[in-house]
Amino acid sequence: MDHTPRALFALIMAGNKEAVLKSNTPWYCVSCYYCTVRCPQEIHITDVMYTLKRIALKEKVYDETAAPDFSKTFINWVENYGRSFELGLMSQHMLKHNPFGVFKVAEMGVGMVTKGRMAFAPKRIKNIDGLKAILTKAKELEVSA
To answer: Relative to the CA of 18, which of 4, 10, 31, 131 has its CA 20 to 30 Å away?
Structure first.
């Protein structure tokens, strides 16, 4: 992320619309709601990130290569496993868009693995077929809307 969520909110409050919409922060948000649950101000941060993405798309102000590709890679993991797989997500994305960036985040990644916060292999949810049926129906409804 080029800005932390806190820094992004400071840009919003400062009225720096261009910097906010060009930021990659909303695109790298994986919608885990961790920040929303922990926010002492009770700000629905994940919802704000979704809104910023929609505005950036509408106004065509975003990095057309990296940002949407990150979202697509995330969705692919969810569709196939029922959840995100952070190590796979970041590995795929960084190898494609910023191979040398791996060195920048390696220490954090090792810390997450050693503290049990990130797995080495993806784990499929129970009843993945049920989730796939729901997602298929949602896509059908989206097309017909």
So the answer is: 31
